[in-house]
């Protein structure tokens, strides 16, 4: 049984008076995020776990970070300079964890790129030596599967799971409540979706994304949490349906591995090699699109953190003057 990453809210004054609604900007952020999550759920319901879907998740992350920064800047809330945790600490924690995951995903991408290089080499050999019998299983593709299985950053997962214990609500005022809800939505989405991608791209991990935290959550947050639970359930179904014989649950990799398996121990035919070429090209396209989105998310997060660090610095200088 995996541990839960659904938020269990520390009840401070934030939840003491639910009659006060959050501000419009915060409500709009949560509504936009929930809409994006529902689209991911619909996409996963139609298709298998794939690099295409993984790129869609990264696209959601980028949009979420852009909108999160805009809401935080517009609120102009003060930063607490002391031991007490506030919105700034939550923002820096969430973005630091997302950067860690981007780096893990980049390592996974490097593994897939090595995979594709080995496949290209195998195709060249198959094309050159077509009249003969070639055992490609023991040489090219087994090496490739072992290479992709090595990319595991347990530290990043452990630290990110620890963030689930730091999700905190604070504040009495309407704008403070709004930013608290926004940070809860962003951090929970980042936690759940990043761990799902980790399971698909790097190494399967058992994560409990139960719905226990939904009932105690602010109403603006409930659609996001419900969508995350639904996505996680659908992801688990797709994962169980996938054939893990090839070392990956990704659709693009499965298609290519099946094409390679058809050639094992058989006289190589041109049609078989062409199927391998086509499936390899599809995998490459998927990797390129996903890599581009990871880079965009990384850049957006760094930009946001730099802006917030500037705000922190200016505030600290103001206190000292």
In short:
It is built from nine helices and two strands.
Report on the structure:
The protein has 321 residues and is mainly α. The protein has one domain (3-298). The chain contains 9 helices and 2 strands, in the order E-H-H-H-H-H-H-E-H-H-H. The chain has helices at 24-46, 51-75, 87-128, 136-149, 154-163, 174-201, 222-241, 251-263, 270-320, and strands at residues 3-4, 207-208. Strands 1-2 form a two-stranded parallel ribbon. Helix 2 (51-75) runs antiparallel to helix 6, helix 3 packs antiparallel against helix 5 (154-163) and helix 8 runs antiparallel to helix 9 (270-320). The radius of gyration is 23 Å and the shape is elongated. Residues 8-19 and 138-154 have low confidence and may be disordered.
Q: How many structural domains does the protein architecture include?
A: 1
Amino-to-carboxy terminus distance = 53 Å
CA-based gyration radius: 23 Å
Weakly predicted, low-confidence segments: 8-19, 138-154
Q: Which features would summarize this protein structure in a list?
A:
321 residues; mainly alpha; two-stranded parallel sheet; 9 helices; 2 strands; Protein BPS1, chloroplastic
